[in-house]
Design brief:
Elements: H1 6-20, H2 27-34, H3 48-59, H4 61-64, H5 75-91, H6 96-100, H7 109-121, H8 126-150, H9 166-182
């Protein structure tokens, strides 16, 4: 039997997510996997929603701990790298985009503020910096959601449907966001 604590529950829940997908994650399955009775999970998480929030936070750790921009960084390079980091992190888990969508980065607010301050210090008007970060985040989640949906059942697309190069499509959309933002940067 696994020694159970909050971190173990989240880790095993993420492993279960990778194995069966978000729709099949249940507290019953998780309890069985941990070798405990289902009600014991409520000691750590009052509701499944609380568990999913903790899973989303843990799944986002690689992006949430990525280096923050420094004053000498080029804002374009940083923005591209930050958005690509988000994409890689979402893709690292089965249904990562679905798990993350709608979650609130409560422990990431200081990092978000730092990123915003960096963009503003780089000449991006504050409102544009906010909207660019929001647009890039939502574009990335949507792109990964589509990519993960395409690969969800492992079947090949119909013969008459073109194969989408998800990475190329993502990079093209990201370039459009950065190019549009570049026109808003103050001299």
């Amino acid at each position: 039997m696994t020694k159970v604590n909050r971190e173990t529950v989240v880790s095993e829940a993420l492993d279960l997510l990778d194995e069966v997908g978000l729709d099949a994650v249940s507290t019953r399955r998780l309890a069985k996997r941990l070798g405990v009775e289902q009600p014991s999970l409520y000691w750590y998480f009052r509701t499944k929603r609380d568990l999913l929030a903790a899973m989303a936070e843990a799944a986002m750790a690689p992006h949430a701990t990525a280096p923050l921009p420094t004053p000498g960084d080029d804002w374009r390079d940083w923005f591209l790298g930050n958005t690509r980091s988000l994409r890689r992190t979402l893709l690292s888990r089965r249904d990562g985009a679905r798990l993350h969508a709608g979650s609130t980065p409560a422990n990431d607010l200081a990092r978000i503020r730092h990123k915003m301050d960096f963009l503003v210090a780089s000449g991006v008007p504050e409102r544009d910096a906010q909207m660019a970060m929001l647009a890039a985040g939502r574009f990335t989640v949507g792109s990964v959601l589509e990519e993960q949906a395409d690969s969800g059942d492992g079947s090949d697309p119909p013969a008459d449907m073109p194969v989408i190069d998800h990475e190329a499509a993502f990079e093209a959309g990201l370039a459009l966001i950065v190019d549009g933002l570049a026109h808003r940067v103050l001299p």
